[in-house]
């Protein structure tokens, strides 16, 4: 068994360390952690190297890799980048599905590269990526794996290019992760991650409201998703390959409640098809607009 000392989140020492660094990323890190539960001061480990979760908290980093095409930190290249960068909603949804014994830090590299070497080591790293982010995702995965931290990758690139991603990470989640995420975390805490989890198409009862309190206030828009899938099923479209042609709608009251938790004044509705095709789809969309 080995013991590792740790500065408790939100403690005077942690705040002083954050303030002394003077880096925007330290601020991001602090903002993200401010809303978290208190943490334990000492972490203990089992003989097999996995963290003991009983009475303790395990640390999870959810990372949106830098996108070389658009990034808020590239505003000098184009002021429109601020409006092209979407919040990493999939990671915010996974954060909402994560049990309280996990301390979640959401890191979006498109608002500034975190100083990973100054941050405490996590117990698990989760990465999402579009294809344009994949090279950076692999760099992040390699860095944390070298340090012995297991890395899980999901999202549309991992789903479409699973053979490419598999050797670069410890575990791949294909499809929509909502239904399998609790199992991924449980297996990770036991040190027994499967090589692959397939979430398929999530039922809307498995979808939880996203955590809108974990990101800094640097985005032009908040983000929400009210439906998944598109019944049009166009042959050239990646939406139906990933989210299917079965049109799935979240209940209107649930969506309205989540809207109320979004701090941004403008909100991007990240639906592929907001109104659907059938009369009942359109009636539900109208009910949402009126709510
Ligand atoms: S999202 Fe657009 S392109 Fe894709 S299947 Fe639906 S209508 Fe077609």
Q: Could you explain the architecture of this structure?
A:
Helix 8 links the parallel strand 7 and strand 8. This protein has 291 residues and is an alpha/beta fold. It has eleven helices and twelve strands. It folds into two domains: 3-201, Rossmann fold (3-Layer(aba) Sandwich); 221-291, Transcription Regulator spoIIAA. Helices cover 32% and strands 16% of the residues. The N and C termini lie far apart (55 Å). It has a six-stranded parallel sheet, with helices on both faces. The structure holds iron/sulfur cluster. Iron/sulfur cluster is lined by residues 230, 232-234, 237, 239-240, 272-273.
Q: How is the CATH topology of the largest domain named?
A: Rossmann fold
Structural class: alpha/beta
Q: Give Rg in angstroms.
A: 19 Å
CATH architecture of the largest domain: 3-Layer(aba) Sandwich
Number of strands: 12
What's the CATH H-level homologous superfamily of the largest domain? Cobalamin-binding domain
Tally the structural domains: 2
- Helical percentage: 25-40%
Ends: how far apart? 55 Å
Detail the poorly predicted runs. Answer: 1-47
Order of helices and strands: EHHEEHHEEHEHHEHEEEHEHEH
Total number of helices: 11
- Mean pLDDT across all amino acids: 82
- Please summarize the sheet with the most strands: 6 strands, parallel
What's the CATH class label of the largest domain?
Alpha Beta
Strand residue percentage? 15-25%
Shape: globular
Write out the strand line-up for the largest beta sheet, numbering strands in chain order: 4-3-5-6-7-8
| Bound small-molecule species | iron/sulfur cluster
């Amino acid at each position: 068994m080995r013991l590792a000392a740790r500065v408790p989140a939100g403690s005077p020492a942690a705040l002083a360390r954050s303030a002394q660094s003077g880096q925007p990323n330290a601020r991001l890190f602090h903002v993200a952690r401010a809303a978290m539960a208190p943490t334990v001061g000492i972490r203990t480990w089992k003989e097999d190297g996995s963290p003991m979760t009983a009475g303790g908290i395990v640390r999870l980093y959810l990372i949106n890799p830098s996108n070389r095409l658009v990034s808020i930190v590239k505003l000098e290249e184009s002021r429109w980048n601020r409006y092209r960068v979407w919040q990493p909603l999939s990671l915010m949804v996974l954060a909402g599905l994560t049990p309280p014994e996990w301390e979640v830090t959401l890191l979006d590299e498109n608002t500034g590269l975190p100083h990973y070497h100054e941050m405490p080591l996590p117990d698990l790293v989760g990465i999402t990526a579009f294809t344009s982010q994949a090279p950076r995702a692999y760099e992040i995965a390699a860095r944390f794996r070298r340090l012995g931290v297991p890395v899980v990758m999901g999202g549309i690139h991992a789903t479409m290019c699973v053979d490419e991603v598999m050797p670069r990470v410890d575990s791949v989640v294909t499809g929509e992760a909502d239904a399998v995420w609790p199992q991924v975390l449980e297996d990770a805490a036991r040190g027994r991650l499967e090589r692959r989890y397939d979430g398929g198409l999530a039922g809307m009862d498995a979808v939880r409201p996203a955590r809108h309190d974990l990101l800094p206030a640097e985005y032009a828009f908040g983000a929400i998703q009210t439906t998944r899938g598109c019944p049009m099923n166009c042959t050239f479209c990646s939406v139906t390959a990933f989210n299917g042609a079965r049109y799935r709608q979240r209940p209107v009251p649930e969506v309205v409640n989540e809207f109320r938790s979004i701090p941004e004044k403008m909100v991007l509705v990240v639906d592929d098809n907001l109104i659907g095709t059938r009369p009942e789809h359109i009636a539900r969309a109208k009910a949402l607009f009126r709510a």
